[in-house]
Design a protein that fits this description.
The protein is mainly alpha-helical. The protein folds into 2 domains: 97 residues, DNA polymerase, domain 1 (Orthogonal Bundle); 169 residues, hpI Integrase, Chain A (Orthogonal Bundle), CATH 1.10.443.10. The model has no long low-confidence stretch (mean pLDDT 89).
């Protein structure tokens, strides 16, 4: 499978552009969709329209398949597109594109342009669950060394807290002073995470130590625990991503994100504690989500098979 990136803005006909604009106007007016999701929906739809207009399956279809029109799309067309995507992008990306198309054609039926939804019979790609990417022991040590050598007190505290609490990027960015409670050998972060779910995340000795020291140096006027050094407001997830990447680059590590630090926490904890407790700490509503941390990574599996090697 090729993992080449799709064109950012493929060319489509005026008719296809008009169809996209009509759908965008409807979603903006009647649906509660955040800007990023809307952009993704339109991007997926645009790529489908571009593929449709460029591809023909037989001469008999060539004349009809010049421009994208939602009323002439059939289930076989969509299944061929799914097969096309499966040869080029990851299964999760294929499924995202299919979800976008299913949303669109549901709207087309709702408008009365089609009697039956051609996307309804199209099945999603079955995902083979794999252990999430996380830092190895050596990578964790290199990242911590890089931020200790060149990072500010805020940045050092951020990295260590992510590694020892498993907080999501959004949760650490929006963390306020009032959510932190440290007393002696106990410490807790009160988190309101995904779906406004409340949980308490315990702080171990390492997290308590770095956070206590950091808070004594944080200005009394600061509302957020990790304010932006530019604006003083909450750190954005994008800024946090850049921050982690900066120190990962210094440590000569590739493609490290804040979520990889969360995965590192989950993977290490899964070796020590029952899954139901880990799920509670990480804010998972289902043990199925937490279970990925007990799956072996590629390195784990390689070590296991080496145990029976003859050389």
């Amino acid at each position: 499978m090729s993992t080449a990136k799709r064109k950012a803005n493929p060319l489509i006909s005026a008719a296809a552009q008009e169809a996209l604009e009509q759908y965008e106007a409807y979603v903006r007016q009647y649906e509660d969709v955040n800007p990023t999701s809307l952009r993704n929906y339109l991007c997926d739809l645009r790529h489908f329209a571009a593929w449709y207009e460029e591809s023909t399956t037989s001469r008999s279809e060539a004349e009809v398949r010049k421009t994208f029109q939602p009323t002439i799309i059939t289930t076989p067309t969509l299944t061929r597109y799914r097969a096309y995507l499966q040869m080029r992008i990851k299964p999760s990306s294929v499924n995202r594109a299919l979800i976008s198309l299913k949303r669109y054609f549901s709207w087309v039926v709702q408008r009365g342009l089609l009697e039956e939804d051609p996307s309804k019979p199209v099945k999603m790609v079955v995902l083979v669950e794999q252990a999430p990417r996380h830092l190895s022991v050596e990578e964790e040590e290199a990242l911590v060394a890089a931020v200790n050598q060149e990072g500010s007190l805020r940045d050092r505290t951020l990295v260590i807290l992510l590694l020892h609490t498993g907080l999501r990027a959004s949760e650490v960015c929006l963390l306020k002073r009032e959510q932190v409670e440290i007393a002696g050998r106990r410490g807790t972060l009160t988190i309101v995470g995904k779906g406004n779910k409340y949980r308490e995340v315990p702080l171990n000795a390492t997290a308590r130590k770095v956070l206590s020291n950091y808070l004594t140096h944080l200005g009394a006027e600061a509302v957020y625990v990790f304010p932006s050094e530019k604006t003083g407001k909450s750190l954005t997830e994008r800024a946090l991503g850049h921050l982690i990447k900066k120190y990962a680059d210094k440590a000569k590590l590739k493609e490290v994100s804040p979520h990889d630090l969360r995965h590192r926490f989950g993977y290490r904890m899964a070796e020590q504690v029952p899954l139901h407790r880990l799920a509670q700490i990480m804010g998972h509503s289902s043990l199925d989500t937490t279970r990925i941390y007990i799956q072996g990574t590629k390195s784990d599996l390689q070590r296991e098979v080496e145990k029976i090697a003859w050389v």
